[in-house]
Amino acid sequence: MASFNVHVTIENKPGISDPEGETILNDLVLKDTHKTVSKIKTAKMLKFTIKEKDKKTAQSKVQEICDDLRIYNPMVSKITIDVFDA
Amino acid sequence: MKVGVVVFPGSNCDRDMFHVLTDVFHLDTQYYWHDKGLPKNIDAVILPGGFSYGDRLRAGVIAAHSPVIKDVQKLAEKGIPILGVCNGFQILVESGLLPGVLLKNDSLNFMCEWTDLIVENNKTPFTNQFKLDQKIPIPIANGEGKYYADDETLKKLKKKNQIVFRYANVVNGSLNQIAGVCNEDGNVVGMMPHPERAVESEINPIDNKPSSLIFESLMVQMGAKN
Questions:
Q1: Cross-chain residue pair B148–A75, CB shorter than 8 Å
Q2: Which among B59, B67, B46, B208 is positioned nearest to B141, based on CA atoms?
Q3: Closest chain A CA to residue B151
Q4: Is A15 within 8 Å of chain B by CB?
Q5: Do residues B88 and B4 touch, judged by C-beta distance below 8 A?
Q6: Closest Cα in chain A, distance from residue B106 (Å)
């Protein structure tokens, strides 16, 4: 068994409004001089530390946890899972 | 006739709800802590507002895994009237008892203000004393009250007459101005506004009678009032 850091990023699906991201873009970033920025999306990240036999198992276990416990709401959100050696 | 008010860690409208049920409508009411079961002979269950588990992760999602929810599900299947108010509505949605989802308000603000509701379905245990399109002056108090459902769910809601309340005006970005929905059978109802804060004339500056009809509907449903 090895220890892995698993990062779960939860963000709104395309088409679901993200007023926080829009406010950061329009009322902060674009009001400054950073005119090359076209989009900002907010997300929530959960960082798991988990002991599993390999990276693939760590990823599938965390996916299973997120699905079973509704860590994200599939109607409006999607998740991205990234696994790193701890 | 027994009504249960379920209390979660972080509920804060449970006492207001208990007060209204007992002192205003004289119903036999009991609190039930979230990690205990509910009695089988209960006649109605109310999930009150608040901030269960501090709204951590997402409003209502952690409370949706509480042991009491299994009993709420069983009672819902038996046709027992279940009402979720504000955080109670969020818990019912997150537990899958009601369709859709509640997102952060468009303003990103916690909104605490009076608004008007329109009754869209007067066949539920909590709306049977209303006329269709009747207006209810009522307060909202939430940060995550913007109702959303995907196209397929919205179609079903309309087809099965599951939209119970709409806001009379654009309030927080809710899809189709939806403020409350019910399950397909109609016995489980969720609403973001707070009827327990609107049924007494002392604290309702507009008109306390419409909100009272929510509880009077329940009493008629349960045979406590003709």
A1: yes
A2: B59
A3: A75
A4: no
A5: no
A6: 6
| CB-based contact B122:B160 (threshold 8 Å) | no
Least Cα separation, residue A74 to chain B (angstroms): 10
The minimal CB distance from B101 to the residues A19, A69, A73 is found for A73
Q: What single-letter DSSP state applies at residue B118? A: E
Q: Name the catalytic one among B94, B120, B196, B216.
A: B196
Size of chain A, expressed as the number of residues it contains: 86
Cα distance between residue A33 and residue B162, in whole Å: 49
- Provide the token pair at B90: 């969020």
A17 vs B: CB within 8 A = yes
Each residue's pLDDT, cut to its tens digit, for chain B (226 residues) gives 899 999 999 999 999 999 999 999 999 999 999 998 999 999 999 999 999 999 999 999 999 999 999 999 999 999 999 999 999 999 999 999 999 999 999 998 999 999 999 999 999 999 999 999 999 999 999 999 999 999 999 999 999 999 999 999 999 999 999 999 999 999 999 999 999 999 999 999 999 999 999 999 999 999 876 5
**Is B194 known to be catalytic?**
yes
* Contact call for residues A80 and A12 (beta carbons, < 8 A): no
Structural domains of chain B, count: 1
Expressed in angstroms, the distance from the first to the final Cα of chain A is: 12
ipTM of the complex: 0.84
> CATH number, domain at B191?
3.40.50.880
Q: What are phi and psi of B220, to 5 degrees?
A: -65, -45
Domain boundaries, chain A: 2-85
The second-level CATH assignment, the architecture, of A2-85 is 2-Layer Sandwich (3.30)
Q: Which domain holds residue B190?
A: 2-221
User: Would B226 be classed as within a structural domain?
Assistant: no
* Residue at B23 is within a domain: yes
Please give the model's pTM, rounded to 2 decimal places: 0.94
Cβ contact, residue pair B101, A20, below 8 Å: no
